[in-house]
Design goal:
The protein has a seven-stranded mixed β-sheet with strand order 25-24-31-26-27-28-30, sandwiched between helices. A three-stranded antiparallel β-sheet has the order 5-6-7. Strands 12-13-14 form a three-stranded antiparallel β-sheet, with no helix packed on it. The longest helix is centred in the first third of the chain and has 26 residues. The chain has 26 helices and 33 strands. By secondary structure, it is an alpha+beta fold. Among the domains are: 451 residues, Alpha/alpha barrel (Glycosyltransferase); 145 residues, Glucose Oxidase, domain 1 (3-Layer(bba) Sandwich), CATH 3.50.30.30. The structure holds 1-deoxymannojirimycin (DMJ).
Length: 861
């Protein structure tokens, strides 16, 4: 029902645009509209079973390529190096620091992939892989590993593998030889991780030596005093499963204790936790709080521990934290990082890609609206940069361009598809598949992307790519009938390993469970849709997710013709100093354009009472986003008496002529505009024509000034700051931005001077009347080359052969270093000649004595 509605609606829109076109103009419109519509229709169109099947096959082919490459080129190494087509063996490759702590010489990728093989119905390969793991893998290597990574990837991988092996064995079709070997390995590994919990607080050390533990003199670890919140708080699923499957409660007890400490240490005012904590005294080391790196799976595990173990205490804690997150951190579509003690203060202007799991968690929580909003934002970022960069700014620009083939975005897409049934999410999944194939696939697997801006590859394929990415993608395009197991009976760990929900009922709970319970009064039932149900939540409301998404479609600017900033309605109170709000904002360089009724739709009636405006808000100066460096420009005074020696540092503009593309800059004499702010028709247009205009900042947007000056015939414009005393030494350079609308009509070169530099220029104009300047990027200023060019010369030193220096065998001038009585004497034939000539001239004119030629006096040859 939902599907046919969507399809009909989409086709109707496309078709109607076409049928209306009878003139050339209309054909053009048709083309544009159709292209636009095609993209949109594609995204929301339902997917036929055949199409889904084709994508599923494609995913399996990609998995075969990745896993096959690992097995062929890398196994038994921990990871595949997909560019070198060989395995990464710790100690044999350059040390990458903490990243290498995932590598324990235990065939990490094989173990992390075990249950993926089952989900993808590769049961023969699974049986083979389990045999290999059982026969080849050792867990007692003298290697220091990360407790967190080893827990989620290896312990989780062994448990997921065991659960699957046990299931297949019970079905009686295969794995009949299996005697719980993977579970025994999991127990062994659990015991090897336990020494990490030997702290007074109960928070685990971040690292452990698999053979020697932590405090043993041979362990080479145990000096660390901090760990991340996620590192301490992401143990409970694996450790509880291990306890319940093995009958030994010790694992679950330790994981619970660590969670209790984190809960105790939450900031009571905000109910948030920090990112790094001291494992000995429980003090926070880093108090920034978000839902991404450092904290992410702590929240995830509270929720999932409740689902897996049915213990209310985890749900109660999760709900307290979740309310705090929604209050301070989630500002849909953004997820911010705030200070845990002062949570209204945002501590950074970028987000990391790990937080992309959060919409998935919100789906489990039953909170779909913010999940849809944040996911849509993430999708827009992937549209702009192909993949999610490791970090991106709140303006969706690249902050850190690496992409490690992380699965979090696919994970959230999977959850949203399962919850909404909206085919849009299948299209998102399809785009992930296509991009991986197009931009990450290499002959020996899939390679991480070093920088999404350049697309360069990195020689790594982390094990989570096989453990997580392929599971979520495959499940998205599969019906229940395609799967060898009923997914509704399992929960995904943070590494997407499968643990049976039945653990809570079929296995006895841990006897030593002393986790404190909290009673939280909730005004409403916060947990209406909390089960990890794969049933669609909104079967009768096909446009549920779409209406939420639509507001976030063009966040990053991709897919729209111009780049207008989003229009926000704000209410401006009168300022204390009596200044009208518009004036007050203008004085801060912010333009407020009252919007007319037509722009605003039905709700857009202008508020009539004083001090309330409905406005478009555009700041006219922008600090360049982190990855984009502001190219410093200069105004160089070149007419006499300055002759290029006076150079004023200037900020560029993001619109108008791009001076970096003008080989020689733009040259002209300067004339002050009248009015000086250039916010209206220019009175002195005749005098300004063909010259570079000087105009004062303020009263209107730079773009408006530029348009007036361009109309008056100026060939460039220098805007001078109106804030007294501002200067380029104390204030970081800014770049001017447009007014939120298209600025394509502005072709003038534009630069910005702080007031102190501006004063130099106006003083020069007053004194000399004619001042010629050059506008250009700083690195191309005149005379700079000369100043910075160093003359260099290569000298070759050798001992002269006997007699060689006497005959004058070499032609031309020769510079010789001759070793004589332990001293190096320098001789230059040309200089000798010159000196002789001078000497004879001097002798002739009977003036001064000759002098011995010093090396420093040798002229450049
Ligand atoms: C995985 O190892 C896990 O999902 C973990 O919780 C954090 N992220 C990586 C993959 O990005």
């Amino acid at each position: 029902m939902m599907q046919s509605y969507m399809r009909t609606t989409g086709n109707k829109q496309c078709w109607e645009s076409g049928s209306a076109s009878t003139t050339g103009m209309m054909w053009k419109t048709l083309l544009v509209v159709s292209l636009f519509c095609w993209g949109k229709c594609q995204e929301s169109q339902n997917m036929t079973p055949e199409e889904k099947g084709a994508i599923r096959d494609q995913i399996v082919e990609m998995f075969d390529h990745a896993y096959g490459s690992y097995m062929k080129y890398a196994y038994p190494a921990d990871e595949l190096m997909p560019l070198s087509c060989r395995g990464r063996v710790r100690g044999q490759e350059p040390n990458r620091g903490d990243i290498d702590d995932s590598l324990g010489k235990f065939s990490l990728t094989l173990i992390d992939t075990l249950d993926t093989l089952v989900v993808l119905n590769k049961l023969d390969e699974f049986e083979e892989a389990v045999k290999k793991a059982v026969s080849d893998v050792r867990l007692d290597n003298d290697v220091v590993v990360s407790v967190f990574e080893t827990n989620i990837r290896v312990l989780g991988g062994l448990l997921g593998g065991h659960v699957m092996a046990d299931l297949l064995r019970q079905r009686g079709e295969r794995m009949q030889w299996y005697r719980d070997e993977l579970l025994h390995m999991a127990k062994e590994l659990g015991h090897r991780l336990l020494p990490a919990f030997n702290t007074t607080s109960g928070l685990p050390y971040p690292k452990v030596n698999l053979r020697y533990g932590v405090l043993n003199p041979l362990s080479r670890t145990g000096t660390e005093s901090d760990t991340c919140t996620a590192c301490a708080g992401t143990m409970i699923l694996e450790f509880a499963a291990l306890s319940r499957l093995s009958g030994n409660s010790v694992f679950e007890e330790h994981a619970r204790k660590a969670l209790d400490v984190l809960w105790e240490r939450r900031q009571r005012g905000s109910d948030l936790v920090g990112t790094v904590i001291n494992i000995h005294n429980g003090e926070w080391v880093r108090r920034d709080s978000g839902v991404g790196a450092g904290i992410d799976s702590y929240y995830e595990y509270l929720m999932k521990a409740y689902i897996l173990l049915g213990d209310n205490v985890f749900l109660d804690r999760f709900n307290v934290h979740y309310s705090a997150i929604m209050k301070y951190i989630s500002q849909p579509p953004l997820l911010l990082n705030v200070h845990m003690h002062n949570p209204t203060v945002s501590v950074r202007s970028w987000m990391d890609s790990l937080l992309a799991f959060f919409p998935g968690l919100q789906v489990l929580r039953g909170d779909l609206k913010p999940a849809i909003e944040t996911h849509e934002m993430l999708y827009q970022v992937t549209k702009q940069h192909k993949f999610l960069p490791e970090a991106f700014t709140t303006e969706f620009r690249v902050h850190w361009g690496q992409h490690l083939l992380r699965p979090e975005f696919a994970e959230s897409t999977y959850y949203l598809y399962k919850a909404t049934g909206d085919p849009y999410y299948l299209r998102v999944g399809q785009s992930i598949v296509e991009k991986l194939n197009a931009y990450a696939r290499v002959p020996c697997g899939f390679a991480a992307v070093q920088d999404v801006r350049t697309g360069t590859h990195e020689d790594r394929m982390d094990s989570f790519f096989l453990a997580e990415m392929f599971k979520y993608l495959y499940l998205m395009f599969s019906e229940k009938s395609h799967l060898p197991i009923d997914m509704d009976g399992y929960i995904f760990t943070t590494e997407a390993h499968l643990l049976p929900i039945s653990l809570s009922t079929t296995q006895p709970p841990c006897p030593g469970n002393n986790t404190e319970t909290v009673r939280i009064s909730q005004e409403e039932d916060l947990f209406t849709h909390s089960c990890p149900s794969t049933e669609t939540l909104f079967p009768n409301n096909p446009s549920f997710a779409k209406t939420i998404r639509d507001g976030y479609k063009y966040l990053t600017g991709v897919g729209r013709a111009f780049h207008p900033l989003p229009i926000r309605e704000i209410e401006l109170p009168l300022h204390d100093n009596g200044m009208e709000p518009v004036e007050f904002f203008k004085s801060m360089g912010i333009s407020l354009t009252p919007l007319n009724e037509a722009n605003m739709g039905d709700t857009g009636r202008l508020k009539e009472h004083k001090g309330v405006y409905r406005v478009k808000l555009v700041a006219e100066l922008s600090q360049a986003p982190e990855e984009e460096v502001v190219v410093p420009h200069v105004v160089q005074l070149i007419s006499p008496p300055f002759l290029g020696r006076t150079v004023l540092t200037a900020g560029p503009a993001k619109f108008g002529m791009d001076l970096t593309k003008q080989e020689h800059g733009v040259k002209g004499s300067i004339v002050k505009a009248s009015p000086y702010t250039a916010c209206g028709p220019i009175d002195n247009a005749a005098g300004l024509k063909g010259h570079i205009a000087l105009a004062l900042r303020g009263d209107c947007m730079f773009a408006a000034k530029a348009r007036w000056l361009q109309k008056a015939g100026a060939i460039g414009a220098i805007f001078i700051d109106h804030r007294e005393g501002s200067n380029s030494e104390e204030t970081p350079l800014f770049q001017m931005v447009g007014d939120g609308d298209s600025t394509e009509d502005i072709t003038l070169p534009l630069v910005f001077l702080f007031s102190r530099e501006g004063a130099v220029l106006t003083a020069a104009l007053e004194k000399h009347h004619n001042v010629d300047v050059l506008l250009l990027p700083k690195e191309r200023q005149l005379g700079r080359d000369k100043m910075e060019k160093h003359v260099s010369m290569n000298l070759k030193l050798r001992l002269a052969e006997e007699g060689e220096t006497e005959g004058g065998a070499a032609s031309g001038r020769t510079l010789e270093f001759v070793l004589e009585n332990d001293e190096v004497l320098l001789k230059d034939e040309g200089v000798e000649e010159l000196r002789e000539k001078q000497q004879s001239e001097q002798q002739q004119s009977c003036t001064e004595d000759s002098d011995r030629t010093q090396p420093s006096q040798i002229p450049d040859s």
